[in-house]
Amino acid sequence: MTTTATPYGQDNFGFSTEQIHAGEVIDPTFGARITPIYLTAGFLFDSFDHAQARFAGEDGGLVYTRYANPTNSAVEAKLTALERGADSLLVSSGQAAITVALLGILKSGDHFLATPSLYEGSKTLFRENFARLGIEVEFVDDPHNIEEWRQRIRPTTRAIYGETIPNPKNDLIDIALIAAFAAEAGLPFIVDSTASTPYLIRPIEYGATIVVHSASKFLSGHGASLAGVVVDSGTFDWARYPDKFPQFSTPIGGAGSPTLVEKFGATAYLEYTRTIIAGRMGPVLSPLNAFLLLQGLETLSLRVERHSRNSLAIARWLEEQPEVESVDYPGLESNPSHALAVKYYPRGTGSVFGFTLRGGIAHARTLIDALEIFSRMSHMGDVRSLVLHPGTTSHAHLTPEERLALGIGPGLVRLSVGLEDEPDLIADLAQAFAAVRAAHSAPAAQSRSSPDVDNSSIGAGAIWESAPQLASSFSRSALMEPGSAV
Ligand SMILES: Cc1ncc(COP(=O)(O)O)c(C=O)c1O
Known about the structure:
- It is built from 18 helices and 14 strands.
- The protein folds into 2 domains: 2-297, Aspartate Aminotransferase, domain 2; 300-484, Alpha-Beta Complex (Aspartate Aminotransferase, domain 1).
- The chain has helices spanning 15-21, 48-55, 70-83, 94-103, 120-132, 146-152, 175-185, 197-200, 260-264, 268-281, 287-297, 300-319, 338-344, 360-370, 400-405, 422-441, 443-448, 476-484; strands at residues 2-3, 25-26, 87-91, 111-114, 136-139, 157-163, 189-192, 210-214, 228-232, 324-327, 352-357, 375-376, 386-388, 412-416.
- It has a 7-stranded mixed sheet, with helices on both faces. A 5-stranded mixed sheet has the order 10-11-14-13-12.
- It is of the alpha/beta class.
- The radius of gyration is 24 Å and the shape is globular.
- Bound molecules: pyridoxal-5'-phosphate.
- The site of pyridoxal-5'-phosphate has 14 residues, from helix 4.
């Protein structure tokens, strides 16, 4: 079994050709055209000596699926090519990808800086779980202000972290600006590109060191399984900073043996993260789920193009509705991130964004309950259109003031626009807006339901009164909820 020798990933081919053919595996036994699912825990050794050689890494063959598996390797090769990286690692979820990507760099006592607008699950992971490991995160206030980044650097700072298209506010970061600062500071820049995918942007081409994805979203598209990926650009000079990143410059087998950088060169970071971090901690992706991800990847460009087209049409339509106060879609000329969208996202700005209803939580509830095509769901990047009320779900654990600081008011509704026909989606929204008008403008309805609320006073706790408080008991959903769902 071999991967194709065709040099995909070097601009010899277009994106759609690469997404189908890069990394594909030719099955030598039966000639299966589709990459087979190698559902096996481990791999046979021919003899006593063969086993010893494998464990010593002498013949490059496979040992155990926790470290590598042919199905997973084929998907990793495809993602490496699509992102223009040096190597990739598949893991069991986006959260696992973020965790192992950072633990490949950070240790107890280290500090890292992050942009303020991030997936809420990443924030709680950094603030709470990483803190328990002795790793401190600090969020900058203004990611566009390089002077602020500079001032927050400490002797223990070891990484910079950001997201391409943060949801639900879509407040884009200037990737090249932050990457240039990270390079100046001698720090790796890790970028979560879940909401953009390599079809919309390749962060490595703008100077990112490492790209992570929740592959459960657009990369898969079908919403049938979770997966995550870490892509190493291979461009960071780890050996230049032996004091900051000793794991790459310490002889692997004691004095006289090579360091990781000497042994693996540009992929030292990925090898370390694969073997020492993910390989030992164990968030392996099942080859079955790798196969499902592969089926999605082959149509990525077509889907993301349609996602973005549908979203722009819906964002424009929403902007015209009198009940809508604002629409957070950078594809709109009126959006504060539009200039960055033009610079970095000429193919479109994705499909996960928020809009704010003037009528606050009461209108949001009526609208969300009236939608028929949109699924009420905690997920994104699915072929199906989805809707969520962040203030009472993904961000419910925050105080009203914290939500206000993130721009998440009671009237904010988040959409993940799918691939259904645009007129059908707009018709669904239109009937839901009609339901809002019917429920909240009739005098009788007004007197018995919550009064219409102006989002301008969203700092006031009273507006959130009808929102459920986060359960304090240790139920499974209470454990899951604090920022851990999309
Ligand atoms: C931007 C982003 N990164 C990471 C994750 C985590 O991914 P997963 O749910 O696959 O663990 C999510 C969503 O859940 C996300 O939206």
